[in-house]
Design brief:
Helix content: 25-40%
Distance between the termini: 10 Å
Shape: globular
Radius of gyration: 17 Å
Strand order of the largest sheet: 1-2-3-4-5-6-7-8
Mean pLDDT: 95
Low-confidence stretches: none
Structural class: alpha/beta
């Protein structure tokens, strides 16, 4: 099983670049983070090599909204730059959002006032072009719905809101990032929803609800979710822990390894 640590949620008592060593020390092989632009890409590459880590994903959109026609040119140009960085860092996945999340999860709200028809049309237009770029580059784009509890005003807040557009675009390089924590808050019915979207789920984020701590601390039956994805549906992608410890870091690490 491929397990990743979101180093912008865990090990936050350490400076950013020290979290690579901590990830290896705690026995994980993959890391992920949000925006790349505020970091030293050459240093990240050196740290990945030094600690024999792989980069699971990072965000490919920064301040440019998928749903805003005024952002189309900048959205695509920034995605191209992100693809180049992904190649430099041997990363196979870029995360996209309806409302871009930049440094420290700050949400871009430009375009929120537009009507649904405009937002959906713009998202489809951008994703068709983005998928072409991803196919040429050998990168997989992971489109992530996010809960309004975490990001009030975010547009794609349910599995269907992203999955329907993914299916229309119909590219093998455009997938659904299924965040179990966000989707439990927004829609519940996790098992049926995962089954319905098994063909397009390309990445899974893990965090227990309602407070986004390690598995076993909240209301989600993660044993059931794991059996469903691996044994029934044959999911072989990354499980990424995007969460914060409930009590101690040691207890959290133990729970993540037990997943």
């Amino acid at each position: 099983m491929k397990k990743s640590i979101c180093i912008e949620k865990l090990f936050i008592d350490l400076p950013f670049y020290d979290r690579f060593a901590k990830t290896r020390e705690t026995g994980f092989d993959y890391i992920e983070f949000g925006s790349w632009e505020q970091h030293d890409v050459k240093k990240i590459k050196e740290l990945l090599d030094r600690y024999q880590l792989k980069l699971g994903c990072f965000s490919g959109d920064k301040d440019y909204n998928l749903i805003d026609p005024a952002h189309c040119r900048e959205f695509i140009e920034y995605l191209k730059r992100s693809v180049e960085v992904a190649h430099d860092l041997n990363c196979e996945n870029l995360v996209l959002h309806s409302n871009a999340l930049a440094e420290e999860g700050r949400m871009c709200t430009a375009g929120n006032e537009l009507n649904d028809r405009t937002k959906i049309a713009c998202a489809a237009k951008n994703l068709v072009r983005a998928a072409e770029i991803a196919e040429d580059a050998g990168i997989t784009l992971q489109l992530e719905p996010v809960s309004t509890y975490s990001k009030p005003g975010y547009y794609m807040t349910t599995s269907a809101s992203a999955a329907d557009i993914i299916r229309v675009v119909d590219s093998p390089n455009l997938k659904l990032l299924y965040d179990v924590f966000h989707m439990q808050l927004m829609e519940g019915d996790l098992v049926n929803t995962i089954r319905k979207n098994a063909d397009i789920i390309g990445y899974v984020h893990i965090g227990d609800a309602p407070d986004r701590h390690e598995p076993g601390t909240g209301e989600i039956n993660y044993d059931c979710i794991k059996r469903l994805l691996i044994e029934e549906l044959g999911y072989d992608g990354i499980f990424a822990f995007e969460l914060s410890p409930l009590t101690t870091l040691e207890a959290c690490v133990e729970a993540m390894h037990a997943f």
